[in-house]
User: Fold these one by one.
Assistant:
Number 1:
Amino acid sequence: MQRYKQALGLTICFFYFSPLFIVSRTIPLSSQILTLMVTWSLLGLGAIACLWKYYENRVKKNWESSQQSNQILKDKFDNIEQMQVTKEHVAMLMRELHQKDENEKVLQRRLDQLNHHHLQEIREFTDLNKDLQEQLTKRESSLSESRLTLKEQRRVIEKKQEEINILKIQVNDFKYEIESILKLKNQPAPAAEPIKIQTDSKSEASTQGLSLKDKLQRYIDLSMNITQSNPFAAPQNGYRLPIGALVIDQRRLFDRLQAEETDVILVYSQEDEKLVFVNKQIQELLGWRAEKFLKDFSFLVEKGLSNWQETLKGLQDGYLGEVRLLMKTRSGENLLTHCYLKVIPKGAFEGHVLGILTSAANR
């Protein structure tokens, strides 16, 4: 660069100052020489301009190339710094990765230990479950045998209980028969009149002054107390006694109602749909014997039989039914009667209908 500047300075001095030096001399020159000198001066100025332009371009190119070199160097330095930062980051990541690998190895060893412990517990649980299942199977088989034994013993006990109940009923039946025979044997029978069962004077006195509805309720209470007073009634443990027990209770009830000499008392079985009892007072009212009345009841009713049947079907617990019947007497006349009916709500005769029949004129 320094040599370029010196050459440029010498050229300027030679081509620019030399013609002026010549002109300044008082040497006479021809016009051609003067023209040549002027031309030479102009060419020198042009050469100076070209050299200056060339110098500027050269300087510009050198500056641009230096700038490019500087930029390249700067980029290289930046890349080197970035590579160093990246290298440090990679080293840090490698250290972290190595630490994570170590942690993963520790966790894997812990996981292997836990899996081994878990497998061991599963084996222990399987063995224990197997032992418990075997014990449970043995206990179930033992319980099944015990249940079978208990069922057999229960059946034997039930059978014995039934036999005992039957024997109690038979004893009760024999006892009642003996009591009836002793009463008949000790009771003097009049020659002209049929045998009458003596009634309790207190019970006759208690019915005097009562309405027919009250009497009917009294007879229903009496029928409910028959079973309650019977020591051999159906037990409370669920066993049902044979039908002999009900027969005994019926005989007790019918004998008690037969002793009532003030009213005609009826007992109707809803299950059998027929009259099962009427006391001997029916003979005083209609002239028919009790057996005849029970057997031919539907033929002895002249009017009101349909009302009788409808009233029986509509009876419910606690409901008092009333029906009028035109009855045929033994003398051939018709008698208008009035009947009160009521269902026995509980006891051995639960569902039976008890009624009082009387003349409509005496009602």
Note: Confidence is low (pLDDT under 50) at residues 189-206, 228-243.
Number 2:
Amino acid sequence: MDYLFEIFSSLEIEEVFNYNNLFHSLNIDDIKQHIAILRSINCHDNDIRNIILSYPEYLNRSITDVEHLISKLRDLGIEDLDVVFDSYPYLLSKNDFEIEKFINDKVKDGYDFLDIVDELESTPYVID
């Protein structure tokens, strides 16, 4: 747990624990992997704190699912994932196929693909 104190205060850890029912079952390696993913997209400690405090269930997500989501967003040309996830952490609750479905539905409705990607990047909550 000492690893968490490098990023979070004890009060913040308690808050995550209270809002994430599965937090007690996670091991430190799982938590480190989730934090490493955020660091790999250029999130700084403050971004990581904001993301996890806003969406503590992120720590429960499958590493593979998160990696697929990130890969999908990068394939779409969304580069500033640190900013996107910091501004809307709940996007991390989505799967890559949900992003694909969102885009396909918008294209079927006549929207331009690049406009959809721009909208997703600038206002990621549109996917909800």
Note: The chain is about 60% helix and 0% strand.
